[in-house]
């Protein structure tokens, strides 16, 4: 009996490990290729070990295009993602608190609208929003990539925070009200500090989504010096550019590094966010 | 006076509206206005750069005579109908593997879930393009297994779409996590009772696990189907509709019409048609819900 069990668990681990290896193989290949000599990447595409090991791809890749280094692209991505994330987390928390804790006319309708925005994906708005932002004169600036997010338009975050506030005991609000605290005081002094886990989850997802938001960058950012990393990477695949695949892989690795770091350190928040509110990873 | 204003602002109903103000403004400015405007432009000839001219239903007439519209719709529906069930089956099978919480399960779960977190990035799209290139990894590995002919995965109309389907299935991690959390909520007593009654593992799966998971399957199906119909970035970078439009996704067609051929009026019509199509698909799924989704046993 015991022996049969051992054999079964050995088979289980071999199977799980083998599938796991297949799953990460593409990423391993990308990372390993970035340390190979650029000329040998495809000659040795079947093997993972870089021989010889070189950092040259990172040096040439970092130089970027037309005298604009990847330092600039990373700075642009960071500015866009951080500002949009701060805006969306702060505005969503305000709206979620109002919907969860204040009674007012139209609250139910508003809540239904929040749920509705969850059903309208950004992609179907591509053309409508472009036409509108063009009228506003926003094309060519970062405004379409940052400003809308400061107005709690991602229903997912409002909904998630709304549920979280629902778990905070109302007695705390009532005690504060008796002491003369306004709703704004309750939000700032009681709800916000208690909401930190929900804020962190929202911030993580928002940051990852904004960092990877290729479509908006493609539509609204025109000048190469304003490109975020995702758009700059695309330049490597353009037929006109000299294809230095080593540099391309090196910069690809760097571009996923921030997301990878978040994944490693905040995995619990990511898993909870997906498992409890169905946020898409 | 100041005091009066202050106490008015602090009233519950007024505070609630003030808290909701960001969303009210956002909803109006970034959803309702653009959607409304584009609804009007869907009936116009409009190139963004020149003023719009009302042409009635002509854009929709063009659409129904546009071969590429039907082609892209077919490609997108094929992609969705193939990739979503594959992805969910995979997600469910792997979730069942990890159902028992062991020490190693956490690490494995992370490994399986990693592709969904970074799969949407340009880096992965660029990587996929190189993997399936003629001189790429996939062919090299096939060579080392003794396969002689070199396959142009991305250049062949029969295989190109499958590279995109594979990329989508590869990102089954988030569906897997949703399944895992649903599996944890099935009371262990159900399994114990059925074991006492002499039910085998397979019987338990089909009689207990699967029926209780149907709400989760439904949720995953709706979410994944919508994102399948709206897939864009990966296709744009990896194949951009080539070869011979065999991977022309609806979104890419819409992008091309609007931003390459400057037919924003037609693009707006395509956008509204997409909203309609997504709505119809979702509605059909909801109509079938009663037939197969377990509703709590009332």
SSE succession of chain B:
HHEEHHHHHHHHHHHH
From the 3D structure, determine the CATH topology of chain B: MetI-like fold
Radius of gyration of chain B: 25 Å
Question: How many structural domains of chain A?
Answer: 2
Q: What profile does the largest beta sheet of chain A have?
A: none
Strand residue content of chain A: under 5%
As residue ranges, the low-confidence spans of chain B are none
- CATH homologous superfamily classification of chain B: MetI-like
CATH class group of chain B: Mainly Alpha
What is the CATH topology descriptor of the largest domain in chain A? MetI-like fold
Largest binding interface between chains: A-B, 89 and 93 residues
- Output the number of helix runs of chain B: 14
How would you describe the oligomerization state of the chains in this entry? Answer: heterodimer
Low-pLDDT stretches of chain A are none
How helical, in percent, are the residues of chain A?
A: 55-70%
Question: Residue share in helices of chain B?
Answer: over 70%
- Envelope shape of chain B: globular
Topology:
The complex is a heterodimer of chains A (281) and B (298).
Chain A: H1 2-33, H2 56-62, H3 70-101, H4 107-119, H5 126-136, H6 143-146, H7 155-166, H8 170-178, H9 183-194, H10 196-211, H11 214-220, H12 229-235, H13 245-265, H14 267-277
Chain B: H1 2-9, H2 12-41, E1 44-45, E2 53-54, H3 58-64, H4 67-97, H5 105-118, H6 122-131, H7 137-144, H8 160-170, H9 173-184, H10 188-196, H11 201-229, H12 233-238, H13 250-260, H14 264-292
Could you name the key traits of this structure?
heterodimer; A: 281 residues; mainly alpha; 2 domains; 14 helices; B: 298 residues; MetI-like fold; 1% strand
């Amino acid at each position: 009996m015991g022996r049969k069990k051992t054999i079964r668990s050995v088979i289980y681990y071999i199977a799980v490990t083998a599938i796991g290896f297949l799953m990460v193989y593409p990423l391993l290949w990308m990372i390993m290729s970035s340390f190979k000599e650029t000329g040998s990447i495809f000659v040795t595409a079947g093997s993972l070990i870089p021989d010889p090991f070189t950092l040259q791809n990172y040096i040439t890749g970092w130089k970027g295009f037309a005298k604009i280094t990847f330092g600039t692209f990373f700075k642009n991505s960071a500015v866009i993602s951080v500002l949009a994330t701060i805006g969306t987390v702060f505005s969503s928390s305000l709206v979620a608190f109002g919907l969860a804790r204040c009674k007012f006319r139209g609250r139910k309708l508003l809540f239904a609208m929040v749920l509705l925005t969850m059903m309208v994906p950004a992609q179907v708005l591509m053309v409508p929003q472009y036409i509108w932002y063009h009228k506003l004169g926003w094309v060519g600036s970062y405004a379409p990539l940052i400003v809308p997010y400061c107005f709690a338009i991602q229903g997912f975050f409002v909904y998630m925070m709304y549920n979280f506030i629902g778990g905070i005991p109302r007695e705390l609000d009532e005690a504060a009200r008796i002491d003369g605290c306004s709703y704004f005081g309750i939000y700032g002094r009681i709800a916000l500090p208690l909401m930190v886990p929900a804020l962190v989850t929202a911030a993580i997802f928002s940051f990852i989504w904004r960092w990877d938001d290729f479509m908006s960058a493609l539509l609204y950012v025109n000048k190469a010096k304003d490109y975020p990393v995702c758009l700059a990477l695309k330049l490597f695949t353009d037929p006109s550019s000299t294809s230095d695949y080593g540099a391309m892989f090196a910069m690809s690795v760097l571009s996923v590094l921030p997301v990878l770091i978040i994944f490693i350190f905040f995995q619990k928040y990511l898993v909870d966010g997906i498992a409890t509110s169905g946020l898409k990873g | 006076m100041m005091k009066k204003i202050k106490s008015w602002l602090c009233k519950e109903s007024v505070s609630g509206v003030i808290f909701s103000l960001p969303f009210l403004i956002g909803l109006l400015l970034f959803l309702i206005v653009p959607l409304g405007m584009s609804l009007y432009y869907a009936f116009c000839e409009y190139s963004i750069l020149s003023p719009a001219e009302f042409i009635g239903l002509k854009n929709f007439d063009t659409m129904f005579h546009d071969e590429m519209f039907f082609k892209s719709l077919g490609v997108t529906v094929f992609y969705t109908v193939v990739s979503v069930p594959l992805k969910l089956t995979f997600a469910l099978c792997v979730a069942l593997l990890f159902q028992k919480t062991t020490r190693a399960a956490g690490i494995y779960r992370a490994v399986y879930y990693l592709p969904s977190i970074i799969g949407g990035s340009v880096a992965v799209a660029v990587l996929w393009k190189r993997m399936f290139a003629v001189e790429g990894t996939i062919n090299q590995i096939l060579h080392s297994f003794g396969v002689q002919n070199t396959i142009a995965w991305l250049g062949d109309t029969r295989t190109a779409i499958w590279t995109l389907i594979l990329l989508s299935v590869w990102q089954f991690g988030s569906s897997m996590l949703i399944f895992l959390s649903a599996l944890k909520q099935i009371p262990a007593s159900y399994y114990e009772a059925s074991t006492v009654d002499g039910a085998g593992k397979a019987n338990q799966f089909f009689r207990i696990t699967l029926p209780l998971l149907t709400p989760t399957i439904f949720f995953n199906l709706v979410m994944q189907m919508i994102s399948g119909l709206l897939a864009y970035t990966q296709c744009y970078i990896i194949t951009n509709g080539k070869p011979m439009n065999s991977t022309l996704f609806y979104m890419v067609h819409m992008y091309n019409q609007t931003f390459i051929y400057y037919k924003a009026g037609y693009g707006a019509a395509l956008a509204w048609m997409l909203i309609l199509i997504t709505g119809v698909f979702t509605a059909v799924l909801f109509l079938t819900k009663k037939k197969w989704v377990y509703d709590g046993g009332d």
